[in-house]
Structure of Ankyrin repeat domain-containing protein:
Amino acid sequence: MTKSTTYLPKRALAAAVLAASGLMAAAGAHAESLDAIVKAVKFDDIADIGKQLKAGKLDPNTLAPNGDPLLVIAAREKSDKVAAALAATPNVDLEKEDKAGENALMLASLNGDAGLVKLLIDKGAEVSKKGWAPLHYAATNGHDDVVKILLDHDAYIDTASPNGTTPLMMAARGNHASTVNLLLDQGADPQVKNQLGITALEFAKHYNAPDAIEILSKRTVRVGASAPADAQKSAK
């Protein structure tokens, strides 16, 4: 009678256990190594990260245990030296996003990190990203210098988020008077509405942003009043 094949010989079973233990140990070592890499990125340890990149031991597109790309972490933490080294690596994906859909240029814009914004754009990062764009992020925190950089590189000024929100609305929401003026001066349309039918002025009112309310009240009326005047001219 043939023995059941469900029972492994003792040697084979021992080998399987050892192999599994080896795999678990290797996985644990990899996790520790990855944690060390993420820590080095967060603390802008260019000596460590630069050495690994130069030796080809570190893929610049590596994901942290939580799924964040290393370049995104560097941008978020303002680790500019490490970010520059990662961005300079030939096979890096500048558009790689975290789970929230944010890439390095977006977070550099949010932080007002003008130097990194310029560097990423020079390396080919996409300025006019569909959906939430770097210009939304710069306007959210009132970073006029970054707004100017993005507009100088052809960022669409009335770019709409998935729900139709524009950079002007975000600047108004945060009561960033200089940013509101800058965007209006550069051609932002204050009469654009999002999917809820809300304009930048209504954003400002909802979030109790007095400076933005004053600016938009005057300049929205001015824009609205220009249409009838133009119509009268064309009718003559």
